[in-house]
Amino acid sequence: MALTNCPECKKEISNRAEACPSCGFPIRGKKIVVKQSQGIFLRTMNFGCFTVIIIFFLIAYSLLRTSSHPKINKITGDAKTAIINRFTK
C-alpha cells in the first residue's frame, strides 16, 4: 500500500482510497481522466508541431526549387551541366 498526496488538500492518503479522508475529495476516476486528457493533449501538440515543421520545410523547398533568382539558377544550371558531363563521358 503506497501513499500519495491528495490533489485538493495535499495530505498523504492511501493510493487505494476512494476519497481523501481529510477533505472528501474523490480520488478514483478523476485522477485517471486528468492523466488521459494530458496525454492526449501532449500527443496532439507533438503531432501539430511535427506537422508545422514538415509544412515549413516543404514550403522552403518549393520556394528554393522554383526560385527565379539569376545567381541561384546559374549555380544550379552549372551543377546540372557538370553532373550530365561527368556521366556522359
UniProtKB/TrEMBL annotation:
Species annotation: Chryseobacterium fistulae
Name of the protein: Zinc ribbon domain-containing protein
Domain of life: Bacteria
TM region positions: 40-64
Keyword tags: Membrane, Transmembrane, Transmembrane helix
